[in-house]
């Protein structure tokens, strides 16, 4: 049985709370399946944006919506102990209800660079940190006694009493990963893999293969695991102007995120056909003149290589179909540009029905 193709929106937690809640409500009204919130980091202050807690914000969003799933996409155990993550997951379980909360974890190398690597972070690699985090969170949410002594973390908790008022289900867990080590961990241990922005159909197919091979080695059916792809998005009736929002968001990621995940991003960039010399001028422009200047440095050729979901509704449908064919089962559109509430409505009116009727 094939997995359903879900289309959601991903947003960074660097905007005012009310605006984020309004966007989530607009996405639900439009018919999107999931609203993912990625945790921003203090670097964005350089560009007049303030990072906010995604766990706190998603709890509010869960209360202010009814149907759409709410996802952490992602939070990092380098900034929270896994026991604390489990405690915050309890809040989301209660706020969203069973079946609506998706728990996404990742190393978040940019955050590590910004604020430090946390408990024992310099002594063990991200693979150990993430594996132990998954094990501790699951143990805590099971309600059973926890006695855990690992290389990165320790965790101890008595069993949860039968009469305690607490959710008893395990939320689906996802792992955000760009490099093969963590992608394989996603296949071996979680419900699915979430890729980074600048994901192309070629990188989606590569990631699907890595995840499924690891799942097979772990005795799991990889075809039943989700592949969530974070892709820049911008829609409008005029296909030319609609691409401009995607240009600005692509510039921000090319200048910042990809620059900060060197090494693990090599395959990501190779799949996009992007060379370092194409990215450096964009990074320089962002540091000197901000995100608008960076956007002006993104040529049409570079934007085409990023493979955004951008343009007219018809073009967006065609682009989404290509990602689905490549193995993506969860589209995580990072909408940017003019009037994103209107963009959400347009997706709901002219794009999402094409996929929901299948």
Task: Describe the fold and architecture.
- The protein is α/β, with parallel strands linked by helices.
- The chain has one domain: Luciferase-like domain (TIM Barrel, Alpha-Beta Barrel).
- It is built from 14 helices and eleven strands.
- The protein has helices at residues 17-30, 54-64, 82-96, 109-115, 126-142, 180-189, 201-217, 239-260, 266-272, 276-296, 300-306, 313-325, 340-350, 352-356, and strands at residues 6-12, 34-38, 69-72, 101-106, 146-149, 154-157, 173-176, 192-194, 226-235, 309-311, 330-335.
- Strands 1-2-3-4-7-8-9-11 form an eight-stranded parallel β-barrel, surrounded by eight helices. A two-stranded antiparallel sheet has the order 5-6.
- Helix 3 packs across helix 5 and helix 6 (180-189) crosses helix 7 (201-217).
- The two termini are 15 Å apart.
Low-confidence stretches: none
Give the averaged pLDDT, no decimals. 93
Shape: globular
Query: Helix amount, in percent?
Result: 40-55%
Question: What can be said about the biggest beta sheet?
Answer: 8 strands, parallel, barrel
Number of helices: 14
The total strand number stands at 11
**CATH class assignment:** Alpha Beta
User: CATH topology, which one?
Assistant: TIM Barrel
Instruction: Compute the CA-based radius of gyration.
Output: 19 Å
Structural class, from secondary structure content? alpha/beta
Count of distinct structural domains: 1
Strand content: 15-25%
Order of helices and strands: EHEHEHEHHEEEHEHEHHHHEHEHH
CATH architecture: Alpha-Beta Barrel
